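Reminder to self: tokens first, then the designed residues, so the page reads top to bottom the way the pipeline ran.
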């Protein structure tokens, strides 16, 4: 994932799902950071429903392999500035 710079992010928009491409950063503990412009609709969506899905598509040309990866996260507000809002995504456990 470090080589990937953009991923698809799916958020709940009330009665519908919204999917968009976003830039992100990942730290050593697999926390994913998203940044958005102030007033962007996804900020309201993540504030109301913090469940997030990230989709990654990777094509390995030498092996002619397509990989699709899907991760489920819980978003929490990291910080706000006059022009940006940053959310931290923590990987959700699928174990019960």
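Designed residues (96 positions):
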């Amino acid at each position: 994932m470090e080589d990937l710079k953009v991923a698809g992010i799916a958020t709940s928009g009330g009665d519908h799902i919204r999917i968009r491409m976003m830039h992100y950063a990942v730290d050593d503990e697999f926390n994913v950071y998203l940044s958005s412009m102030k007033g962007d609709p996804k900020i309201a969506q993540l504030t109301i429903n913090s469940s997030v899905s990230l989709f990654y598509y990777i094509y390995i040309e030498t092996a002619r392999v397509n990989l699709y990866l899907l991760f489920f996260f819980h978003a929490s507000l990291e910080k706000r500035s006059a022009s940006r809002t940053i959310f931290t995504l923590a990987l959700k456990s699928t174990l019960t």
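The beta strands are 6-12, 17-26, 32-37, 51-60, 65-80, 84-91.
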